[in-house]
Write a structure and sequence with these properties.
Strands 4-3-2-1-5-6-7 form a seven-stranded parallel sheet, with helices on both faces. Helices cover about 35% and strands about 15% of the residues. About 40% of the residues are buried. α1 packs parallel to α2 and α1 packs across α6.
Length: about 210
């Protein structure tokens, strides 16, 4: 168990009927977090990977904080056994509640909502508005297309940094928790602005 208890925000799918490899990864992550005494911060759902990680955290002795919009309480079947649950009015308020409690972020496989949540914390880290660890758990190569896109954006100059600076990638939930506990390197200063006249907005990093 880590000597420092962290609140780890997990972004993951709420879809049902997912392949077992993803469900098992969520269970392993939850069990590892609970075993080490960390708290889960997540979207409060009782379906998909959301349920698996929450149940596993508590089964291993950890605590669960959930935040869920009122409009999704019925659709996502809110996770009633959460140690603390906040019902918000909007998705933006849900993310704010999660962000306010998070010491770090871990992304399991997921859909558009998971990707949107991940991109927001990546963008804020890129802008140096936070310096909390962000880790992607690349189960069965799920994040490979995303990582290829990030490399292309960095290579072509659309983003200043990616894997290894803004975020880390691992294949196993255990390694993900290790990376969160270890922290991540400080995001380096922004690059020196180009001198050509067309680059006046260079310091305003793209969203």
């Amino acid at each position: 168990m880590s000597s420092t208890r962290l609140s780890i925000c997990v972004f993951c799918a709420s879809a049902s009927g997912l392949p077992e490899v993803y469900l098992e990864a969520a269970r392993q992550l939850g069990a590892e977090m609970g075993r080490r005494g960390h708290r889960l911060v997540y979207g409060g759902g009782n379906v998909g990977l959301m349920r698996e990680v929450a149940v596993s955290v508590q089964a291993a002795g950890g605590n669960v904080f959930g935040a869920i919009p009122r409009s999704l309480v019925e659709r996502e079947l809110v996770y009633g056994p959460a140690d603390e649950l906040v019902v918000t009015e909007t998705l933006r308020e849900r993310k704010a509640e999660m962000d306010a409690r998070a010491d770090a972020f871990v992304a399991l496989p997921g859909g558009f909502g998971t990707l949107e949540e991940l991109l927001e914390v990546l963008t804020l880290r890129q802008l140096r508005l936070h310096n909390r660890p962000i880790v992607l758990v690349n189960v069965a190569g799920f994040w490979d297309p995303f990582l290829a896109t990030v490399r292309a954006m960095v290579g072509d100059g659309f983003a200043p940094a990616g894997e290894g600076t803004l975020f880390e990638v691992t294949k196993t939930p255990e390694d993900a928790v290790d990376l969160v506990e270890a922290g991540q390197p400080t995001v380096p200063p922004a690059r020196t602005p180009p001198t050509d006249a067309l680059a006046e907005d260079w310091t305003a990093e793209p969203a």
